[in-house]
Amino acid sequence: MPNRRDPNAATRAGPRTIHHLPPGLEGLPWELPRVFLGLDGPAATPEGAATWILPVPYEATTCWGSGARRGPQAIIDASRYIELFDHELGRDPSEGGVYTFPALELTRGDAARALAELRGACARVLEAAAARRVIMIGGEHSVSSPAILAHADRAPERLTVLQFDAHLDLRETHDGSRHSHACAMAHVVDAVDLVTVGARGISAEEWAAVQARDNVTVITAEEVAGQAPARGPESAIPRQPGGAEPATRGQPPARPGPAPEHTWIDRAVAALGPSVYITFDVDFFDPSLVPSTGTPEPGGGHWYPALALLRRVFAERRVVGADVVEHAPIPGMNAPDFLVARLIYKFIGYWSETLHPSPDPVTRPSG
Questions:
Q1: What is the mean pLDDT of the chain?
Q2: What is the total count of domains within the chain?
C-alpha cells in the first residue's frame, strides 16, 4: 500500500501509534506525521530505527538563488508519498525503521559559530547513534564540512569523501567568507581523500588546487556523459598501479570522443578507500531534473547512472555517513522535491543491503 492515507480508510495500516497525544485520542484519523516517509509507531522512534534523519535547514552564504533552508522540510513532506516497496531491491527498506530528528537551528549571523555548533552536534549524534546510519539533509553545502570532520574524527582509518557535485567547492574564500558553501571541501581536504563526480563549474583556483594535490580525484561531467575530457588536472587521469605516472603524461590532450559506458564508475570506485562518506549536492543533476538549486549548471548527471554508482559504493565499500544538500524548492514544482526524497530513500535501501558492518577488505592503487 502506498505510503499515504487511503481516503476510505480510518488508518493507514491498522492502529496507529502517535506519541504525545492526549489519552484517548490515538484512534482518530490524523494525517501522516511530518517526518521522513511519514512513518509512525516503534519503527519511527530513535530506539526502533536503523536510520536516523538529521535535518539542518541552514542557509547563510548562498551566492545566487536562495531557498536551501526550505529544502529539508520540502524533501520530508514529499517523502510521505513515496511507494515504500522498492522493486529494484525486492523489499521494503522502511521496515528497518527511520527516525527523523527535529531540525537543528544553528546560530544566525555568525557562520563560524554556526558551523562549530554543527560539528559538536554531529559528534554527539554519532555517539548516540552507535551502529545506526545517519543521513543529514541540508541546507547549503557548508553544513557538510562539520559532518565530514565529525565522521573523520571517529574513523579508525583515513576517510574518503565521495562528492556528487557540479562544483568542486575547493575555494579558500568566496564573497569574502571562508565559510561559504563554495569552500565546503576546502575545509576537509587536508583530513580526508576526495573523489568528486559530475563537476562542470570549476574555477581556475580550484583547478590549480587539484593539480597540486595527490588526494583528489575529479571525474568531470563530460566523462560522466561519455565524453572524454579535453584536458584536466593530473589527478583526473587514472594512475597506473603502484602510483606510476599516468600513461598520457607529456602527450597532447585527447580530443573529446565517446568513452566506454560507465568506465567513470569503475574509476570512481577504484579511487575510494575502505571507509566512505557520501555528500550529494543536488546540482550534480542536470537542471532539467533538478532546477531547484542555487547554482544550477547545464549538462549534469542523470538518475540511473547516479544510482549505478551509489549501489556499487554501498556494496563494495563501508559507507559511514551521508548528506544531501542544496535543494531549494520552487513553489508549485513538486517533482524535484520527490526526486530528492526518493534519492535519500535509495540511500537507505542500498545501505540496508549491507548485512555486515564491514565489507571485504578493499585495495586501491597507491599514489
A1: 84
A2: 2
